[in-house]
Amino acid sequence: MRGAIDIPYLGSLIAQNSFTEPVRGLDTIPVDEHPPINITHWAFQTMVGLGTLLALLVVVFWVARWRQRDLLTKRWFLRSAAAAGPLAVVALEAGWVATEVGRQPWIVYGFMRTEEAAASYSGLWWLLGSTAVVYGALTVGAVVVIRSMTRRWRAGEADLPSPYAPERGATERVEGRS
Ligand code: HEM
Asked: Taking the complete model, does pTM exceed 0.85, yes or no?
């Protein structure tokens, strides 16, 4: 193990519900019961890294506000806030990958392996293909609608079918715009 960060007591409390019991390492698990380690590791790092960044963005905003600075007039902050949405989805998917891949090779820990539970189904590729096509089309549709709403809002059109449009005049306050 390289780059380990030892957290005395707390690691044991999280893993074993005790302050003193050692945390069991992967070296105590038989090799044929190891999960795919790199995928689990990187998915977890991605989730925690993004979670920390997102929380930091909130802290930065409130500290700035407390010091009488309005970050809503800063382009970099608005860009970060816009990126936070998709990044939260990436964190969510990474968390899911960390738990699903990390539980392998078990479907029921200690009782049933995933290979024993998996069935074969000849129509699987059709099902997967049509799901991908439907959700791909929905994604393209959503992006087209949102972009057209943005365009119409910028053009000054009132009564857009959205309760979430920013307050009028908000973009004019952003630095670099007049
Ligand atoms: C510092 C930030 C974070 C920490 C320390 C953390 C910690 C964890 C841990 C320990 C697990 C595994 C739980 C288990 O073993 O069953 C987990 C799972 C998960 N996390 Fe995070 N997480 C963080 C941020 C996030 C964020 C920002 C998101 C989403 C926006 C997220 C979404 C998930 C999801 C979806 C799972 C899988 C739940 C499941 O399927 O059982 N996490 N997280």
From this structure: no
